[in-house]
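Re: that chain you flagged

S.,

Sorry for the slow reply, it's been a week of failed gels. I finally had a moment to sit down with the sequence you sent. For the record, here it is as I used it:
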Amino acid sequence: MKLVLGTRSPDKIREIRQFLRACDCVPLPEDAPVVPEDQPTFLGNAEKKALVLAQALGALVLADDSGLEVDALGGEPGVHSHRWAGEACDDDANNRKLVRSLEGVPEPARTARYRCAIVLAFPSRVMDRAEGACEGRITTAPRGTGGFGYDPYFLSLDLGKTFAEATPEEKLRVSHRGRALAALRFPRTAP
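Prediction finished late last night. Pasting the structure tokens below so you have them in one place:
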């Protein structure tokens, strides 16, 4: 059974394929609809994307929504993590905003977590949902060259290093996305 990955992020596709090695994972077709992420929660966005894409493609779709929550910023950037610095932003712009927003905040108060919600849907219904989180702190300077997004600044409490310093295998073992994928139940056959 083919599984369409409901994301256009090459970094997310790589991580999901790494975790789901036994599945026949295919990327979104070029003509797949763009689903606005306008829900107030990660789970709401993931469910909306999974259902809309499954119905449009007539396929089994796995969609996720994930982001960073910083306690000193009242949970921001949260569901706005990808576009926190503006619609046309990139990882560097988001990270610059993160560093500016936390200027003067002492290390003990720089607690944060990554959250991920994943939804698996057929065109007719949601098959399963799962969520994962991992705790950490935001560093004052970037560390490491791997990962993506806020990874150079996210010091994992589980690993004792930033996600950008971790190997892909280490990151996936303790990350929000890895934990959500591990909790997801996959159907053996289509309904």
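What I noticed first: Strands lie at 2-5, 24-27, 61-70, 111-122, 125-138, 154-156, 161-162.

Talk soon,
D.
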